[in-house]
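Workshop exercise sheet. Pairs work together: one partner reads the sequence aloud, the other fills in the structure field after running the prediction. Swap roles for the next sheet.
Pair: D.N. / O.F.
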Amino acid sequence: MSYDYEPLKRLYGDRLKLNEPLARYTVARLGGPADARISVGSAAMLNEVAQAAWQQGIPTRIIGGGANVLFSDLGYRGLIIINDAKTIDIHDDGTVKAESGAVLTHIARQSMSRGLAGFEWAVSVPGTLGGAIVNNAGAHGSDTAAVLTSAEITFPNSKIETWPVDKLNYHYRESALKRRSEPFVVLSGTLQLELGHDPAELQAKADGFIAHRKTTQPPGASLGSMFKNPPGDYAGRLIEAAGLKGKQIGGVMISPVHANFFVNTGGGTASDYLSLTKLAQQTVKDQFGVDLELEVELIGEGFDSPSDKQKPNFLNSLLNLLLVTEIIIAILVDMFASPLSQLLGPSNTPLLFAGLTILGVVSTIIGTWATIKSSSLTGICLIFVSFIFAGVSLLFFYLSLAPGSI
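Structure field:
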């Protein structure tokens, strides 16, 4: 679907860029072109542009720091707003009001310099306050929900609301906003931090967080944590235990440093990321029965297609089909071997078992290939069943050559 950007062009002139590549605005340095892009420098301007786009029926997305978001190679059919609204106001009572484009590390450092505690965890977290409010960003045992008191949010029809933290209904990396399907834009947020702390002590604590991040997370172009940690476990541990650490598809690699970080090694595409993501999800599901849920948001043409979401995993379907087929055939042969031999006759019975032997050998090869490719548990089961199936079929083949042996 195409949209009419002329009304926005008349309003904002050369500030509105058409057919703009998104790679330069994302941490992973990839993504196809957006129909249109504009940068805003204040919360008021952010609200104005969003309202103008909504009035024209144009889909709109906001980019802050460009972390935790993956744009498709085909790009985005709509308007991308680059949020440079970064004003930070720190008050004597320990409240901090910041516009949604304010960088988390800047908020943390300015707060610590004033002796305010509670936001040190954000000193090493990429992204902006708007994204943190929507996703309940967090690290080192704390999160946005622990310090946020309210958020100012704009909706279509020029409606601006102030939501208290309770209304955001926060959970681990989740919020009422993230689950919302209707358009909205976060304009600003208010934090309540603790007064009276020694800035030097806060800085020392923050330095520890930074050092920990440098030793446990990879440098370079990554999206941040790819998956949410499942209850009672860690996504990185599961991916590493599945044998995928260092696995690479195209230009994207599962980091050898931390398996929950997928790094663009150069020339990577969104499709590479998506393929590697699906491989990790399927392998962890096969081996441990755990469904890994994306923490990164997929945006753009091709990602949100219902047909793509409903498309079955062909390899896994093939493995399951072969496995079930061999089990059913084995049961039938065991039950009806003698009548089947009499029905087919001495000339055709060996051909049947020769064909079943070939099926078992081919299935063993397919299972071995699938196991090497994706560490599939179904593939391992298929190897075991097919090896026995081929051996028994071969035995019956030799027996069928001697009339009356079956």
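Discussion prompt: Confidence is low (pLDDT under 50) at residues 305-312. What would you look at next?
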